[in-house]
Structure formats: C-alpha cells, structure tokens
Write a structure and sequence with these properties.
single chain, alpha/beta, five-stranded mixed sheet, Fatty acid synthase-like isoform X1, PKS_NRPS_Biosynth_Enz, Ketoacyl_synth_N, PKS_Beta-ketoAc_synthase_dom, 3-oxoacyl-[acyl-carrier-protein] synthase activity
C-alpha cells in the first residue's frame, strides 16, 4: 500500500492555531458560573481554598433510597429562582423552561459583565453562542409525563434553546447552537467558538455548559455503567455533580464595542 502523503501546510495548521500572530489572539475576558453550593467563581474559590466538601447527601434532589443510586451529589443552590421579567421571559414560559436554560441565561449575563462589556452594546453584533449540554432531565417530564399543555413546553425544554435563547435575548447575530458530545460537550463548544472567531464567523463568543442531576434514575444509569475509567478501575461510587459555566471570548483585534483587553 502506497504511503499517504500529507501536505506540509496541513502539518503546520495545528502550530498556527496554537501560535497566532500578534494581534490575532483569542482572549477569555469574562467568566461566571454556578457550582455545587457555590453561587459564583469566587464562592467556589473560597470553598476550595478552605477545603469545604461540596458533595452532600441531603434530600434537595431526591429522597429515593437505593443502594446503587448515589446519595452524595454536588448540588447547585436556588434552582427555583429566576427573574423572568428581567430576561423578557413570559411567566408561563418560565414555569416550563429547563432550569439549565435559566442558569445559562443568568451566567451569560454575568460573564459579559465580567468582561467589561455592557450587554446592551452587543445587540446587532457578530457574537456567537456555543453551549455544551448532554442530558436534559426536564424534557421527559414535560413531554411525556405531564398532561398539562401551556404552549411553551417545546421551546422551554428543547436543548437547542439553551443557546438560542441567549442569542435572542442579547440580540446577537453570530452562530448559535448547542453541542452534545457527552462528557466533552463543553470542551467542543469552546473549540467551535475559537474556530468561529479565527475563521471570521463571529467577532466574539459566549461559551457555556451546564449539567443538572434532577432524577435519581439518570444517576443510577451512570453509576451502573460498564464504561472504563482512566485508571482502568471503576470507583466504588459515582458522584453526580451539577454546574453551570459561561465564558466570554473575543478577538484581540476586533472586540465588540466596549470590550476591554485582558487575559
């Protein structure tokens, strides 16, 4: 079999992406997030520095006692709170909206503010939204279990809306979609955002990911899965963890209006 020839330009493409020319750098200028018992990145930092155990066995999510269902999980606070009027969400929509969508909206706003950008100045700009998400445990409840219909169930629990609702609220015109590659979803969202900025599809990007553990049977499936782990051994107990994280990226040369340059 003849050897496969690879163009020299292709061999250098990875080096060019990781070593951009001066002025072509893509910067992370803002960050925000919810983490187990930590309402912000600063809260998480303080809890980690103080060696606080953020896995708890309280019954905030479920009270089902089963030997194979993880009882110690990382839980986000205040899932039932959301300022619907601030984000322009109809009150009926707010009651059927996936909690992940509410979290991502809130943290997208905070990440933009953390980047030194007034969210109002993003309207009409080429800002993309790239969200990584795998499971939505609210879909099954609203689509198949509840007989109540209020005209907002599909748009409230569709994973496509995790990204699209942020774009709609901010009024941005860049690419907007949700990526599902299982455990690597958020990483691939970051890769897509980086490439979109480098290729000129957008000047800035909001990148995020979220995971919520609302139903014990999903955690049971993960805990019982036969998939291999990095060490080659399964842990005695799989611990489910909730989070919601947002980053704001911009091009060093073409930041959106009002974006400060920082690393």
């Amino acid at each position: 079999m003849a050897p496969t020839s690879i163009a020299a330009d292709r061999l250098q493409s990875g080096h060019r992406l990781s070593h951009p020319l001066p002025g072509d750098e893509v910067l992370i200028t803002g960050i925000s997030g919810y983490f187990p018992d930590s309402d912000s990145v600063i809260d998480l930092q303080e809890n980690l520095f103080n060696k606080v155990d953020l896995l708890t066995n309280d019954a905030r999510r479920w009270k089902l006692a089963h030997p194979e269902i993880p009882q110690r999980t990382g839980k986000i606070n205040n899932l039932n709170k959301f300022d619907a009027s601030f984000f322009g969400v109809h009150y009926k929509q707010a009651h059927t909206m996936d909690p992940m969508c509410r979290i991502l909206l809130e943290k997208a706003y905070e990440a933009v503010i953390d980047a030194g950008v007034n969210p109002k100045t993003l309207r009409g700009t080429k800002t993309g939204v790239f969200i990584g998400a795998c499971f939505s445990e609210s879909e099954n409840q609203w689509f198949y279990e509840k007989a109540q219909v209020n005209d907002f169930g599909i748009t409230g629990c569709s994973r496509a809306m995790l990204a699209n609702r942020i774009s709609y609220w901010l009024g941005v015109t860049g690419p907007s979609y949700t990526i599902d590659t299982a455990c690597s979803s958020s990483l691939y969202a970051l890769v897509h955002a980086y490439r979109a900025i480098r290729d000129g599809h957008c000047d800035a990007a909001i990148v995020g990911g979220s995971n919520l553990c609302l139903h014990p049977y999903v955690s049971l499936q993960f805990n019982s899965s036969p998939y291999p782990f990095t060490s080659g051994h399964r842990p005695l107990q799989w611990h489910a963890t909730e989070l919601g994280l947002q980053l704001f990226l911009c091009n060093h040369c073409k930041p959106p209006r009002g974006c400060r340059h920082s690393t």
